[in-house]
Amino acid sequence: MGLFVFFGHVVFAESAMTESLALQKAKDLKWFQDPQWLRLGQYQKQFLGGYQSPAESSKFFLAVDGKNNPESELYATIQDLFRNSKKIKSQDGRFEDPVACVFPARKLWLEKKIGQPLPKVSCDRYARFIEIMQPNSLTYVFSSYYMNNPASAFGHTFLRINKAPSARDGERYELSDYGVSYAAMKVSDNPFVYSFLGVSGLMPGTFEINPYYYKVREYNDFESRDLWEYDLDFTPVEVEMVVAYIWELLDVNFNYHYFSQNCSYRILSILETARPELNLTASLKSQVMPGDTVQTLYQQQGLVTQVHFRPSVRSIFDQRYQELNDTQKTQIRRFAKTESIDELVRNLDKDEQRKNLDAAMDYIDFRYPKEVMTKTGKYAFKKEILSRRAELGGQSAPIKVLAPVNEGPHEAHGSRRLGLGYREWNKENSYLLDFKLSLHDLLDRKFGYPPTAQITMGHFGVAWNSTAKNLSLDYATLYEVISLAPISDFSNSSSWRLKWSVEQGYESACRTLCRWTELSGGTGVSATVLSNLDLSAWLRVTTLTSPDFTEDQWRLGAGPAVLVRWSHKDVSLLAESYYRYDYKSKVHEFRKNSIGLNYTLSKSLSVRVQGEFVDQVHRSEARLLLYY
Question: Cα–Cα distance between 486 and 491 in angstroms, integer?
Fold first, then answer.
């Protein structure tokens, strides 16, 4: 038996793949064209031919021309992995590791190609990384839309590396898992500079890993954002490749593109490295919306195995509040104004006191998140409530918050929209064509999007006037946001709106149809009634400029507006009345009343009719809208 093993070993050694044989085989079989190899280098085909990797770190490439030449990068990788003589310093200069330890995903890929293990190398840092991660499975996480931060208004996604169930009790403890995210490095505190760099792709982006409980604190607790978790069906071998590739990318910079190669794009590029046939990034739109990437994964047959909902601290409070009786609710509402613990529990039995104190702690958590997390301000008050709760003893029943029906991002319509329509305006008829890059307006069905917000980027419309026989630009809305923040006993946030566009229409400064550039905004108060009816009152400010104006080419005006929106299932109704007083003009007053009705036929199709009155000029139009 010993001889058999010995001779077996000799035969293996003689037939083992050498560096020269591996290089020859790689050249003969053109391994550099292998989709997985191209994914590992993030190589992208160029319009004029060839490849280029968006990775900006020179240490990511072993060949001098590796950034633009996947073939020479492959040969350099084979040589370095076989020789094991080269070491690479980390970006901060603190560590120096062999190539096999810096590029474990490339090593896994090459071992699969040559059909045998490569020479063993001691990789203490990478081994420690795997020991900490304990990777077993993967989950794609979507953090819901956050209107208080422009960088998060479109949502955010990241990858969770899951550990195996506990050997002690067989339970999964998600908070001990790790979240992998890609984000822009903060290079300026100026929001305009930050936005410009992000949109133009001039800001560096990096990968980072944090414990999942940290991500939960950031999104669930600090920003009151719900998390939607999508378990992915990846094999153990694929999970190993994903984690190995993440290690390779931790020391690499990319240019962060807010609307294309952003957080969601980079995470999908990691997933398709482990399973190239998914081809996820190729199916994305040129403007990558985080919600769209959820649907991209969801549409892959069998890839998403389960969907979980992790409620924010605000959602938990809302659920806890709904479970109270009328007397308890009254005292919680009073507590939100007086913050008196004695009034909170007055004349209640012990069980009711427990529930009220639990609700009060949740209220403090979502109302003062920064102070609670930094242990300042209201943190001391929360400890007082906790102390009173401890005096009562007893264990509170866990609060179960069900996933909101039809609110997951996988339920949403496509972020892009194409419209065809017909209009009658001041006794003239026109055929309409419009295209919107993203994302959602107040008349669209609410499924999968923030129910009280409109976010529009790049909405363009043209009109063919069949009466005058001419084609004209109807409007070009570059940016428009309307955020309705319903006031309640527990929230007094202001609603706000902002718009930048070029439009044509009838203005008080025009004798006929004219075109102008508009920059407008406003603030107001909103209230939601019976869950389906939103009412809001506004103070709006509008700046207009146009060479078509009869007097001064610039106009500045302000005035009140009232907006009503009703939405139920597939039907939405929106009406607004706006009065504006303009300065520096003979005609100071401008009035506009509008109404719109949208009926959703399917997830990708709806019909919309709208009407508008502007200073005695009437406009009515109907559109068929396609979402994709």
Answer: 8
What is the chain's alpha carbon radius of gyration, rounded to the nearest angstrom? 30
| pTM (two decimals) | 0.91
Q: What is the pLDDT of residues 390-416, one digit of tens each?
A: 999 999 888 999 999 888 999 999 999
3-state secondary structure of 415: coil
* Burial class (CB within 10 angstroms; exposed 0-12, middle 13-18, buried 19+) of 313: buried
Tokens, residue 17? 């793949």
56's CB contacts (< 8 A; 6+ apart) are 204, 252, 253, 254, 255
Cβ contact 527:495 at 8 Å: no
Cβ within 8 Å of residue 314, ≥6 positions away = 224, 366
Q: CA-to-CA distance for 268 and 427, rounded, in angstroms?
A: 51
Label residues 400-421 b or e (16+ Cβ within 10 Å = b). Answer: ebeeeeebbbbbbbbbbbebeb
Cβ atoms of residues 285 and 416 within 8 Å: yes
What is the enclosing helix (H) or strand (E) of 145?
A: none
Contact between 250 and 209 (Cβ < 8 Å): yes
CA distance 153 to 105: 34
Distances 141 to 178, 297, 440 between C-alpha atoms, Å: 12, 11, 21
Average pLDDT over residues 98-105: 97
CB-hemisphere CA count at 13 Å for 403?
18
Strand blocks (E) in 441-483: 453-465, 470-483
Distance of CA 573 to the CA centre of its chain: 27
Residues 6+ apart with CB under 8 A from 218: none
